[in-house]
């Protein structure tokens, strides 16, 4: 891991983005069970994968800040 | 004791929620990006902003295809908005009784 310090406001912005991501992953996971349309279901599954990848990348940047 | 319990959400409601989040995500990334200094942070925000834009379009196109959005017929759109808004209000009223 690169040892880069983040500016305080960057840390806060990343914190906000990560919190929003986490919420949307949890919400999508719960809501897919209500979905009838198979296309919508597959869109949501793809979204959850992208969001998880994003969340992990944000986590690793934030790990440098603490 | 709960008198009225909502046990499901329509595909349209779920999609509307996804679209709202997707729009919000694009704006949050853009704002964070214009304030970022660290190159690594800028790179990450730029990549994720790009994904957020694609994701918003994907959800919107799906809704447009389903007829849940009528970008070229404002009258039909407003009518639909009023109907679904009223439906939601009525559900709340039923719950409050």
Summarize the structure.
Chain A has 66 residues and is mainly alpha-helical.
Percent of residues of chain A in helical segments?
over 70%
Q: Give me the number of helical elements of chain B.
A: 3
Query: What proportion of the residues of chain A form beta strands (DSSP E)?
Result: under 5%
Uncertain regions spanning at least 5 consecutive residues of chain A: none
Count of helical regions of chain A: 2
| Mean pLDDT level of chain B | 92
Number of separate strands of chain B: 0
Radius of gyration of chain B, CA atoms, in whole angstroms = 18 Å
Strand content of chain B: under 5%
Number of strands of chain A: 0
Question: What is the typical, i.e. mean, pLDDT of chain A?
Answer: 93
Gap from first CA to last CA of chain B? 12 Å
- Helix-strand pattern of chain A: HH
Are there runs of chain B of 5+ residues with pLDDT below 50, and where?
A: none
Task: Give the class of chain B from helix and strand content and strand pairing.
Answer: mainly alpha
Shape of chain A: elongated
Q: Mind summarizing the main beta sheet of chain B? A: none
Distance between the termini of chain A: 13 Å
Order of helices and strands of chain B: HHH
Instruction: State the share of residues found in helices of chain B, binned by percent.
Output: over 70%
Q: Characterize the quaternary organization of these chains.
A: heterodimer
Can you put this structure into words, describing what you see?
The complex is a heterodimer of chains A (66) and B (97). Chain A is mainly α and 66 residues long. Chain A has a domain at 38-66. Chain A has helices at residues 8-31, 38-65. Chain A is elongated. The mean pLDDT of chain A is 93. Chain B has a domain at 11-69. Helices cover 78% and strands 0% of the residues of chain B. Chain B has 3 helices and no strands.
């Amino acid at each position: 891991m690169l040892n880069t310090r983040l500016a305080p406001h960057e840390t806060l912005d990343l914190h906000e983005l990560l919190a929003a991501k986490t919420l949307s992953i949890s919400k999508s996971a719960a809501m897919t069970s209500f979905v009838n349309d198979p296309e919508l279901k597959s869109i949501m599954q793809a979204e959850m994968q992208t969001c998880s990848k994003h969340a992990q990348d944000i986590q690793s940047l934030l790990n440098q800040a603490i | 004791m709960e008198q009225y319990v909502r046990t499901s959400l329509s595909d349209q409601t779920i999609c509307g929620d996804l679209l709202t989040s997707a729009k919000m995500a694009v704006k949050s990334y853009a704002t964070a990006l214009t304030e970022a200094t660290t190159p690594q942070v800028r790179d990450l925000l730029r990549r994720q902003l790009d994904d957020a834009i694609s994701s918003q379009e994907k959800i919107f196109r799906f809704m447009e295809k389903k007829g849940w959005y009528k970008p070229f017929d404002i009258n039909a759109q407003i009518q639909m908005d009023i109907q679904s808004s009223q439906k939601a209000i009525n559900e709340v009223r039923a719950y409050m009784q």
